[in-house]
Design a protein that fits this description.
InterPro entries: FAD-oxidoreductase/Apoptosis, FAD/NAD-bd_sf, FAD/NAD-binding_dom, FAD/NAD-linked_Rdtase_dimer_sf, MDHAR3-like_C. By secondary structure, this protein is α/β, with parallel strands linked by helices. The protein is built from nine helices and 26 strands. The N and C termini lie far apart (62 Å). It binds dihydroflavine-adenine dinucleotide and nicotinamide-adenine-dinucleotide. Nicotinamide-adenine-dinucleotide binds next to helix 4, strand 10 and strand 22.
Length: 434
């Protein structure tokens, strides 16, 4: 089989790939120059929808509604947009071998693809309980969520196990978002996680206590400080119980596992320099090998504001890093210069009627402000993180667009704080005045 050759190949067909394609089109890519190769069967879509609107019991989100670039507030790129713009979308094609010295990618079916410039956008995969040898973890109806196929399997289980019992393993993003979405489907939910409170990598105990209280008020049971140590299944191989390390046994018709992601860098092991679990890049997303770029979840890049290398698994960075890489590639070709990537970390989540945003860095002392009583009619609260006398991070639940912009601005400009008690009293007003 003869190799197919392209000037540019984006490897991966997720969020970054979609935003890279749009940027290539803006920069005037010529027909036949660009290919996107994805193991998924769907054209790039906004992955965050899978743990939210996709699972709603009424009027769920479905493709083509959430193809990129709607999440970034742009035009939706329907599957037909790619050929209309001379871009080859090569779907259902998994690359199993990459050789950066010969600039060749090989698919599972033996097809070869040659490129002049490669953008690696392979994202993350889920960490599986079977990776830790948890007994019985391959039973039916134990679900993970990364791609639309996973979401379809979960939707089918929700429909076939009406009023059933769900155990959610993990108290991070997936655990909290799916706890809410499945509870909205009238399922009986128990969440289990090892830490003393949910989302410990970002939340303080005070932030977490609000969400845990809110979930409890919705009838969700939470078991902390232990892990799933095994699963029992019936004669059909369907899971029916989760055994916990502390000895408790929970009945389960459905299990959802969200115990973290792992960046998909294995294709390039030994070929590209890695750092902090990702592919090391500069502020233009160039890797250690000429003409090879890495963006989104897989890139470990210089976070200019904090003067250190970081890897970020969030959609805002996936979008922006992809655009930056394409701009850098084009600038390189034209012999012009662009500014290095200057990213303000931004995380968000939505569950039930709640919606929070966080900007900046969650280091240093914290100050909680506002009403974080989960039983309040309209709870609204936030937290500032203070390091070396400056506000470096800000979190806000139930903010308006204007208020969220204000906390973003605080995290970006890092104003000094004199009196902590005054900051607590001023709360959101402090951010709105900056
Ligand atoms: P992404 O995972 O989007 O795409 C990678 C693509 O590469 C996939 O199409 C994959 O199939 C393909 N691929 C991988 N290996 C391949 C190979 N060998 N050959 C061919 N194709 C290959 N973030 C956030 O900020 N807010 C949010 O609300 C959410 N919500 C959310 C929900 C769910 C369910 C998930 C799984 C993730 C989120 N995220 C999020 C995280 C966010 O979606 C994530 O950071 C971005 O999708 C990363 O974009 P990438 O393009 O790097 O990877
Ligand atoms: P996560 O890292 O957010 O949370 C993993 C959770 O599982 C943590 O609470 C962790 O301590 C817990 N855990 C670890 N081992 C465990 C075990 N053996 N038993 C029980 N719990 C265990 O990861 P996630 O929630 O799986 O999310 C996966 C990916 O999807 C991440 O990249 C995340 O950023 C992304 N995502 C993001 C959003 C968002 O930004 N709103 C939403 C959904 C998914």
């Amino acid at each position: 089989m003869a190799a197919k050759s392209f000037k540019y190949i984006v490897l991966g067909g997720g969020v970054s790939a979609g935003y890279a394609a749009r940027e290539f089109a803006k920069q005037g890519v010529k027909p036949g120059e660009l290919a996107i190769i994805s193991k998924e069967a769907a054209a790039p879509y906004e992955r965050p929808a899978l743990s939210k609107g996709y699972l709603f019991p009424q009027g769920p989100a479905r493709l083509p509604g959430f193809h990129v670039c709607v999440g970034g507030g742009g035009e939706r790129l329907l599957p037909s947009w790619y050929p209309d713009n001379g871009i080859e979308l090569i779907l259902s094609t998994e690359i199993v071998k990459a050789d950066v010295s010969s600039k060749t990618l090989t698919s599972a079916s033996g097809e070869t693809f040659k490129y002049d410039t490669l953008i690696i956008a392979t994202g993350s995969t889920v960490i599986r309980l079977s990776d830790f040898g948890v007994q019985g973890a391959d039973a039916n109806n134990i679900f993970y969520l990364r791609e639309i196929d996973d979401a379809d399997k979960l939707v089918a289980a929700i429909q076939s196990k009406k009023d059933g019992k769900v155990v959610i393993v993990g108290g991070g993003y997936i655990g909290l978002e799916l706890g809410a979405a499945l509870s909205m489907n009238n399922l009986d939910i128990t969440m289990v996680y090892p830490e003393p409170w949910c989302m410990p990598r970002l939340f303080t105990s005070e932030i977490a206590s609000f969400y845990e209280g809110y979930y409890a008020n919705k009838g969700i049971k939470i078991i902390k400080g232990t892990v799933a140590s095994g699963f029992d299944s019936d004669t059909n191989g369907d899971v029916n119980a989760v055994r916990l390390k502390d000895g408790r046994v929970l009945d389960a018709d459905i299990v959802v596992v969200g115990v973290g992601g792992r960046p998909l860098t294995t294709l390039f092991k030994g070929e590209l320099v890695e750092e902090k679990g990702g592919i090391k890049t500069d502020g233009f997303f160039k890797t250690s090998v000429a003409d090879v770029y890495a963006v989104g979840d897989v890139a470990t890049f210089p976070l200019k504001m904090y003067g250190e290398l970081r890897r970020v698994e969030h959609v805002g960075h996936a979008r922006k890093s992809a655009e930056q890489a394409v701009k850098a590639i084009k600038a390189c070709e034209e012999g012009s210069l662009i500014e290095a990537y200057d990213y303000l970390p931004f995380f968000y989540s939505r569950a039930f009627d709640l919606s929070w945003q966080f900007y900046g860095d969650n280091v240093g002392d914290t100050v909680l402000f506002g009403d974080n009583d989960p039983s309040s009619e309209k709870p609204k609260f936030g937290t500032y993180w203070i390091k070396d006398g400056k506000v470096v991070g800000a979190f806000l639940e139930s903010g308006t667009a204007e208020e969220n912009n204000a906390i973003a601005n605080v995290a970006k400009t890092q104003p000094s704080v004199g009196d902590i008690e005054q900051l607590r009293k001023d709360g959101l007003t402090f951010a709105c005045k900056i």
